[in-house]
Amino acid sequence: MTWFGWQTHRRQLGKTDGFTSIELLAALVSSLLIIFVGFPAFEFLTDNGEAHLLEQPSLANHLDYARSEAIRRKLTVTVCPSKDNRNCQNQGNWQDGWIIFTDNEGLPRHVSVGDKMLHNQKGVSAVQPLIAHVDVVQYREDGSIRLD
After folding, report:
1. Which residues contact residue 140 at a Cβ distance below 8 angstroms, ignoring those fewer than 6 apart?
2. How many angstroms separate the CA atoms of 31 and 140, rounded?
3. Is 99 helix (H, G, I), strand (E, B) or coil?
4. Tens digit of pLDDT per residue, the chain (148 long)?
5. What is the pLDDT of residue 126?
6. Number of domains the chain contains
């Protein structure tokens, strides 16, 4: 049978070109599965990733957020302990709270005029005190870390 003859034979059997309902249903289920699994992970990378920080105010989540913002914004992002939620303190007492800001001037312990405040976290109640010998954590635009 030639190609043209086969096509004629197929139309005679009642078959047409296109997808079957089973194929469409499988494609729809696969697409929905990918959307429902992938969308929550993508939401953290968008601008409203800060909402996640309000739900779980742990220092580890905030450090992850600061690193992702440094990479996304291609800027240095600084995290430092702060009592007043505006300025860094040098005691290393993270339990009083901390701030996250873009550091355009390169002064890691000082929020300058050109810097943008990304998040400020008030003090958290922890079972053990959050005291460290690190006063400042900076993430460079490539995601690498600088500790002071």
Report:
1. 70, 76, 146
2. 36
3. strand
4. 455 555 555 555 556 677 788 999 999 999 988 887 776 666 555 555 555 555 556 778 888 899 999 999 898 898 888 888 888 887 767 888 888 998 877 666 677 777 888 888 887 665 555 666 778 888 998 989 887 6
5. 57
6. 2
pTM over 0.70: no
In a domain, residue 61? The reply is yes
Within-domain flag for 7: no
- Residue 34 is part of which domain span? 20-49
CA diameter of the chain: 87
Kind and range of the H or E run holding 55: helix 50-55
User: Where a domain ends, among 31, 49, 67?
Assistant: 49
DSSP string, 6-43: HHHHHHHTT--SS--HHHHHHHHHHHHHHHHHHHHHHH
Distance separating alpha carbons of residues 68 and 80, to the nearest angstrom: 16
Can you tell me the distance from the alpha carbon of 45 to that of 106, in angstroms, rounded to the nearest whole number? Answer: 25
